[in-house]
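Write out the bound-state structure for acetyl coenzyme *A.
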Amino acid sequence: MIEAGIIGTGSYLPDVVVTNQDMSGIVETSDEWITSRTGISERRLSSGEPTWFMGLVAARKAIAAAGVEPIDIDLILATTVTPDYYFPSLSCIIQAEIGADNAIAFDVNAACSGFVFAMDVAGRYLMTGAAKNVLIVSAECLSKLTDYTDRATCVLFGDGAGAVVVSTGGGRILGSHLRSEGKSGGSLVSRALPIQHPFLDGTGRNPGGWGSAFPERFPDAVDKFIRMDGTEVYKFAVRAVTDSIQVVAKEAGVEVARIDHFVLHQANFRILEAVSRRLGVPMDRFAVHIGEMGNASSASIPICLDNMIQDGRLKPGDSVMMSGFGAGLTYGAMLVTF
Ligand code: ACO
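---
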């Protein structure tokens, strides 16, 4: 157990609302297909605001809610799969914008699991006394990586940001369990820039994919767009999230049935339902925001937390099981009290 918790939250969603009806105007799909398969009715897309700006607005709100001064923040962790720059890191941009001159700032890359991974890192800094106030900013602009001619993926994703301040001045971290399964990573990919320089003669070694560990799943993909084996990811998500929640609850000595809220990565309503069935916990304890925001990758959990605090669902003393899963493949869960 770590004597530290979330003392402030903030979020940002862009103004552009894209409905399922709008999607059916650009690809062959329907509101009925999208809603019944995913639970998504609409998603928010950037109207041009960059990832760092979304993260900055969320960060400022979280800092104000926490009542800390930027100068008292020791560590900034940012998570994103859609940065505006390869470098500097998103966390360094946020540091500069808020004037947190005393903070160490670096990014954590665990795709959609990023927020839970960053919470785990924060907990360890707080536990050792290396930090007292940690700002986590999860900001995503997935529309940058979405192929709007591919109906199997383009209906799923949205943009937005969430942020929290984690501090020794509040709540508790009761347990955490992270896992990575790199060997299954090929089922969810987005490719970075290809090698291009004046001395390239085509004779170099190109093992393809990740080399010999497993066969490349999307060998023809040469662009940046998200490629996903939806069925594989679905099965992985249900198994991984259920397992990690059970491990954390057991290690923390807390009955799953007694946890107040389950705030899972918002990728698909059916995944939330399947986890709820497997755990034997009613759906009314699960945060469900996928319908109005789509899948905003690592930002989805802190956006949910902020919504729940704003509308009074989440109160001081409540226990919250968070769980993320995504590319890597990565997954994890963390149990906290507010
Ligand atoms: N509209 C209409 N039809 C569609 C659409 C669409 N938008 N997309 C796919 N279809 C069609 C397919 O072409 C296929 O047609 P066919 O049978 O004629 O070939 C049919 O619908 C069924 O396709 P499936 O992929 O089998 O559909 P499924 O029921 O598995 O649902 C989905 C797909 C929603 C992607 C599901 O597999 C899923 O949610 N997987 C998990 C995805 C996920 O969690 N991603 C999160 C990780 S990524 C991240 O968070 C960044």
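---
The mean pLDDT is 95.
Residues 29, 33-34, 37-38, 112, 151-152, 155, 188, 228, 230-231, 233-234, 237, 267-268, 271, 295, 297, 326 surround acetyl coenzyme *A (CB under 6 Å).
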